[in-house]
Amino acid sequence: MTDSTDTHGTPSPDLKIIETRVYRGPNVWSYDPAIHLVVDLGSLENFPSNTIPGFTEKLLEHLPRLDQHHCSRGRRGGFIERLNEGTWLGHIAEHVALQLQQEAGHDMRRGKTRQVKGRPGTYNIVYAYADEAVGLAAGELSVRFVNNLVQPDPDFDFTVELEKFIKQAERTAFGPSTQAIVDEAVSRDIPWIRLNKASLVQLGQGVHAKRIRATMTSETGSIAVDVASDKDLTTRLLASAGLPVPRSESIRTVDEAVSIANKIGYPVVCKPLDGNHGRGVCLNLLNADDVREAFPIAAEQSRRGWVIVENMVVGKDYRCLIINGRMEAIAERVPAHVVGDGVHTVAELVDITNADPRRGVGHEKILTRITVNAAARELVRSQGFELDDVPPEDVMVKLTLTGNMSTGGISIDRTWEAHPENVEIAEEAARMIGLDIAGIDFICPDITQPVRETGGAICEVNAAPGFRMHTNPTIGEPQYIAKPVVDMLFPPGATSRIPIVAVTGTNGKTTTSRMISHVFKGMGRKVGMTSTDGIVIDERLVIRSDASGPKSARMVLQNPRVDFAVFEVARGGILREGLGYERNDIAVVLNVQPDHLGLRGIDTLEQLADVKGVLVEAVPRTGYAVLNADDPLVRKMRRKCSGQVVWFSMAEPGSEVRDYIEGHCRRGGRAVVLERSDLGDMIVVKHGRRSMQLAWTHLLPATFGGRAMMNVQNAMAAAAAAFAAGAPLHDIRQGLRTFNTSYYLSPGRLNEIDVDGRTVIVDYCHNAPAMRMLGDFVDRLGESLIASSELGRPSRIGVIATAGDRRDEDIHELGEIAAQHFDVVIVREDARLRGRKRGELAALIEAGVRSAMDAGARCRQVEIVIDELTAIRHALARSNRGDLVVLCVDQHQTVLAELESVSHLAQAGARSGDEGGDPDFVKPSDETEDPSDA
User: Fold this and answer.
1) Which of 211, 425, 592, 714 fits as disulfide partner to 609, beta carbons 3.0 to 4.6 Å?
2) What is the pLDDT of residues 630-651, one digit of tens each?
3) Cα separation of the two ends of the chain
4) Phi first, then psi: what are they for 140, rounded to 5°?
């Protein structure tokens, strides 16, 4: 805090959120997922915490555990020191958001608050979250709470709001069983993705992925689940194996139930055929009237209307948990009850028991609150009490007959007490049903004695048994049963991750990604690739859209066919959501050049480099960063890499960059460089002191005989990434030699098409740096066309455009550069103007072209034709045979269809001997005329 802070006047509750982002992976602020709030303090910018009377005291009164926060001091109480010294309310909101999540059981501690540069009173608040919805709700509530501390709002009750927040967190949280498995997976570095708002979770990636839903796994057989759900069939199967089970029959009417009960002998149990969680189970039925009363209760919980009547086995209730054929835990389940103290009534004892913070609604906590319903009242009455009676001290009053945790029961761990014969019986029961995870319910006098001798039986086999009675027993030691579940899904040594190669840079991302994918497809890998054109799974385009963001990456990682992933990662996706995945084995950074500046707070090249450097920060110690040594900003990223760096460079031997790379390789490092000779340029792979020739650049189809230097660079980056990923040299060489810029392999990127004698190049070039590289290629290609032309000096015609979210000066520069390389420039616009008015972009580009023309540039004519297809038709119409026409397109599918149509029409005209026009036709005088009329 500074002495110059103006604190005159009265603080107003002006703190408000003006922007919210959710980062679902590594991002520019942190390596882990985070919530990002941009807040405006308004008048509160002039009122730090120590200038608002009573602020700190009221804050700690409501959230006393804030005194545990370290803040920047690195010790407990550090945040309190900052409050007393004076800190701004945006910073306080960050700590409140973290503490609110801790109140809901999410141990989140990481956060930071920074002022937005050049915007006094506006702050970036970034804090960690475990559950996205809870994290967002914590941020919103923290802002409301801080405002209320500044100026109380009679309609805001923090206690009530906190309770609502905690209940929301409990609703969205995983249940104890799912959470236990996820925690175990995280401890083993197994990635996971939540697939819905409930408990469906994917563990692992791609081809290695397994799924769980609570304790049901992708290894759980549907037939086994159906069998376990049919209690009658379960009993018959277990009986056929000689396992102890009660006598039972399934029926559908009350009269049949009474008849079977009379046949079996009282007392009996009446329960639904396919129920769960103990719902509808009626125990200790002593006569026909009890059976008639219990039947509709059981039938109501049966999905198919069938009810089981079986003889009642007397004893304690035990749950044996079998995982992958082995007993892993046993718990004694005690029905919901209260114990008299001679002072309180039964109802009061229930309230005292439910006040235990371990008890919640349903399965949200380790114990469930006891519900007093009509059945509970009747059971209490049968024990000689009413709810208003005070039971004697130490007298147990049962509230339910079944020991299910879901009805308020408690559990006692008995894992190490069970007799080996009982363990063997439970394991055999799970095998008979066929379940990988099974809960075997035993009723017997004592689990420490053989049930065949003491009496007892298996009364039920459960699919997807709950874990909380074992992981959080009320009495006894917890059993870490998530371990055998994860062991079963991912045996020791099994792989859970697929290799991920992430590619970023201002230009060349898509082509490089395609080259890497092509190399590994040639090796037989099932590659999942994302790019600006869509998502490709094993050479099949499954989604056609701009898929260079984090959502697309997650879609690839969820696909069960993919065993290798290549992600094109754009600046916008990183700023919007982060990477969307935890880490990449190989990060490729091609270049950092002025493009998309002035958006989302990125105003300089250095800031843009920080954004693209997120990929390098996401490289683990075992991974690699493939960096362009020729780009100073990319070169600096080596400091962000935890793994090894692989350089690629087109620098000449003897240059400072090459000398640095040589030193890197002498220390055992890796690099891909270009060696020049009279025979041509050779791509060379260096590893330590070894140098391995990879390929002549002029023999790689994508380089157009070595003329397309941008694709030479892209090929070098792809080779470096493939080499780092373990691809053999001959596979890399074969991949690059078979990769070309045909529309099939590289749609919209340097596609060459012959259209009635014209060389047409289709590319995506949309910014000034890309236009500079494309212009170099045009110059080289143009010279070769002159050498081979028999029709005189060919013209160069360029159709150019850019996106509307560039700065005016960048758009102007694009036009200037284009004018240096084309004879005729036709300016068009994309369908999406990204905030610009129609015609505004074209005018800026045209101004850049004319500026260069005035300075003596090559261009002799510039025209504006706004519509893309109309501009392309116009370019073809004014060109002659032998000319070079370069089309910088937006919708390449539509453009290629148009070019094919024109080409077919020309071929058809040639075959028919049509002499209606000169093959070397002159462009029509009317520039808006349809070229099909020429």
Assistant:
1) 592
2) 999 999 999 999 999 999 999 9
3) 75
4) -65, -45
